[in-house]
Amino acid sequence: LVTVDEGLARxxxxxxxxxxxxxxxxxxxxxxxxxxxxxxxxxSAKAGWTVAQDLLAAIDRYHIDRxxxxxxxxxxxxxxxxxxxxxxxxxxxxxxxxxxxxLAQADxxxxxxxxxxxxxxKNFIGTFAVPWAVxxxxxxxxSLSPRDKRAGYIEAVKVxxxxxxxxxxxxxxDADKLR
Length: 179
Hints:
- The protein has helices at residues 6-11, 15-25, 44-47, 50-61, 76-88, 102-106, 146-163, 165-173, 175-178; strands at residues 2-5, 37-39, 69-74, 94-99, 113-118, 121-128, 133-134.
- The chain is built from 9 helices and 7 strands; from the N terminus they run βααβααβαβαβββααα.
- A hairpin with a 2-residue loop joins strand 5 (113-118) and strand 6 (121-128).
- The chain is globular.
- Helices cover 46% and strands 20% of the residues.
């Protein structure tokens, strides 16, 4: 079952067709149970239960179980919501993330935290669930604004400062190119 962030689908009109074409080319190993669904992304995806319930309803409708995969393609908040819904359906379905922003590729796409906002608090309800796979496709970054691209670079610098001095030195060495 594939679900795509609405903002990404809008900015990349051929994306849904490309997903269907790719999966059709691999039909002997992958069965797409329904056309990719498009759900709201951004913080609104996590702000209430509507979007998560829509994904949970699709998981139920298409008989997705713990041996099936839910593929989410989108930004960080969208991946948080999809990861949460996938983690609570059947006490955990296999979840594949395709983060579509540099920030999501550096943060939520590769993380294990899934969350929903509630009671006026960010990520108040959530789970820890390791994704089955994370695919960082740089082609998904093509439609990003320069501001959105920089957001991910900032996250990479933060992670490098906290955990990886050599990575930080490499970023520092390539700062002019990154700028």
